[in-house]
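User: For a benchmark we're assembling, each entry needs the component sequences followed by a predicted structure for the full assembly. Here are entry 17's components. Please fill in the structure.
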Amino acid sequence: MTATVLMIAHGLVAVALLGAITHQALATWTPARSPPGSFFGRFRAVPSASFANAIVVLYLVAVALGAIVYLYFIVDVRPQLERDAHFSALGLFDLKEHFVAIGLGLLPAYWVCWRRPLAEDLSASRAALTAIFAFIVWWSYLVGHVLNNILGFSS
Amino acid sequence: MTSLEAPRRFAFAFGTAFAVCYAFAVGRQLALFTVFPSLGVVLLGTVQSRDFGDPALGFLTPAMYWYGWTATASLGALVAGSIAALVPEAWTKRVWRGWLWVVPVTAMSACVYFTLPWFRL
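Assistant: Structure for entry 17:
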């Protein structure tokens, strides 16, 4: 029961993080130059710097919850996945844990890059780190979702 | 402005060094500690289940290295970050800032390489 509650909380935090990093990445890489008219235009017309603190906090909370849920995963879920020969899924999950850890190490640099007033000389680093974080968050979300669904909810 | 430079140097060196140390820790199996969740035991260093139990029962005591690898990388990154923050600014001024993203992307690629065996099973 505890694991299920933590897993749902982990998923909800991940959804919020996914939304924030996607907004920021699109606003950074394809900023809107004219008043947005379309949904996509409005999506990328957000003030990207205002997302940075929320992304740092959400990333830390998501990692903390994931690190706790991981204990249940290793004991209860992973043996079943190995027994059922879901080796590719386990490989994808290993990549998720590696990418998330590397993202954890990059978090202070990401925060420094987005600290206001935005430093002009850091614009390239800012864009690159945001893209890396967007990739890590999307990868983690999709792989976590796939793994959660392999055995079915609460199985 | 100078007072802001030290935290910036620390953060950039920390992120870069963390990525290197993490990939190295995974590749060389250098976990600072190993967690055995089913036993509620944490042991220093990289410990295999078979090292302290019957190899045939290894599946009952799965070992977790991720926390240990992260701790190893944090330790290495902390040292690198502290050095970068303490050295004179002129020493770090000529370091290409692109390393900040090139190194983590390379480390992530290395992790993909380490994970390939899963996809050959």
